[in-house]
Design goal:
The longest helix has about 35 residues, at about 10-45. By secondary structure, the protein is an alpha/beta fold. A hairpin with a 2-residue loop joins strand 4 (about 170-175) and strand 5 (about 175-180). The protein is flat, with a radius of gyration of 25 Å. It has helices at about 10-45, 45-70, 90-100, 115-130, 150-160, 195-205, and strands spanning about 80, 100-110, 135-140, 170-175, 175-180. Strands 1-3-2-4-5 form a 5-stranded mixed sheet. It is built from 6 helices and 5 strands; from the N terminus they run H-H-E-H-E-H-E-H-E-E-H. About 45% of the residues lie in helices and about 10% in strands.
C-alpha cells in the first residue's frame, strides 16, 4: 500500500496503517460483541429472562445490604472519633478499624489553618463514598485532656503511627495503616486542590473507589499518579487484635 510517504518512509506509513486497521478492527469487535448481547436478550425465552431478572435483583439487594451495613458502622459522614467526650480515642480507632475495611483518618489541630482545608474536602467526600469511613482525631494538647485534645489515646496513636505533620491523612485498609498523606505534598504542594483531585489521589492509594468525575488525573501529578505508579505507603504497621504476641502492644490496646 503506497501511502505517499516515498520509498524512505514507506515502512513508517505501513506501520501507521497497520496500527489504524488494528484499532478499527478492535472497535468493530467491541461493537459486534455488544450487539450480540442485545440479540441474545431478544432471543431469550421467558425463563432465561426471569433468571436474569432474579440475578439482577439479588445484586441490587446485596448492594443495599452492604450500604446499610456501612451506614450502621458510621460511614457516609465525616465524624470525630472522640465525639467531644472524654473517651479513649485509641480504643475508638481500633474498634472502627475492626468493622471498616477502609478508613481515612484526619489527624488535625484546631490551631493549624491547613487542617480546615481537609475538613471542608472530607465533609464533601464522605457522603459520596459510603465504602470508606472518614474520621478525624484532634491531637492538640494530646498530652493533657484538659487542653482540649483527645488525651493519652491520641498521644499513643501519634507516637505509634509516626504522625509528625499537621495535617496528616492516614489511610487504613484491612486493619493495616498503609499510607500517610502528609500535608499537601501529594496534592501539588498547595491548598487550592479540588475535592475531585483529592479523591483521585486517595483512590490511587485504594482508600476509596473513584467515581467517573474523579477519575481524571490532576495536572499537578504530571503524567502518572495514583495507583498506576504503585505508590508505596510510608507506614506498614499491622494492627493486630488478639493476644498472639505480635502487633501493637504498648498501652494494652491489643486487648479487644
Amino acid at each position: 500500500m503506497d501511502l505517499g510517504f516515498g520509498n524512505t518512509n514507506q515502512s513508517v506509513g505501513n506501520a501507521a496503517a497497520t496500527t489504524l486497521l488494528r484499532a478499527t478492527a478492535a472497535q468493530e469487535a467491541a461493537i459486534s460483541s455488544e450487539i450480540s448481547k442485545y440479540d441474545a436478550l431478544l432471543e431469550s425465552n421467558d425463563t432465561e429472562l426471569e433468571k436474569l431478572r432474579e440475578r439482577r435483583l439479588a445484586q441490587m439487594k446485596a448492594a443495599r445490604q452492604q450500604k446499610t451495613k456501612w451506614l450502621e458502622n458510621g460511614h457516609g459522614s465525616y465524624t470525630d472519633l472522640a465525639s467531644g467526650q472524654q473517651m479513649d480515642v485509641a480504643r475508638a480507632f481500633f474498634d472502627a478499624a475492626k468493622v471498616s475495611n477502609r478508613m481515612v483518618v484526619h489527624f488535625h489541630r484546631p490551631s493549624t489553618r491547613q487542617c480546615d482545608v481537609f475538613h471542608a474536602a472530607l465533609e464533601k467526600l464522605a457522603p459520596k463514598h459510603p465504602e470508606t469511613r472518614f474520621v478525624k482525631i484532634n491531637v492538640e494538647g494530646c498530652d493533657d485532656v484538659r487542653e482540649g485534645g483527645s488525651g493519652v489515646g491520641a498521644k499513643y496513636l501519634v507516637e505509634k503511627l509516626g504522625i509528625v505533620v499537621m495535617p496528616t491523612l492516614l489511610i487504613v485498609k484491612d486493619r493495616k495503616a498503609s499510607h500517610q498523606l502528609r500535608g499537601f505534598d501529594e496534592l501539588g504542594g498547595k491548598d487550592d486542590f479540588t475535592v475531585n483531585e483529592l479523591a483521585y489521589v486517595l483512590g490511587g492509594h485504594e482508600a476509596l473507589t473513584r467515581r467517573d468525575e474523579e477519575d481524571v488525573e490532576p495536572s499537578f501529578l504530571g503524567g502518572g499518579g495514583g495507583g498506576e505508579r504503585g505508590i508505596e505507603g510510608v507506614n506498614s504497621l499491622r494492627m493486630m487484635f488478639g493476644g498472639n504476641g505480635r502487633g501493637v502492644r504498648r498501652g494494652g490496646y491489643d486487648d479487644f
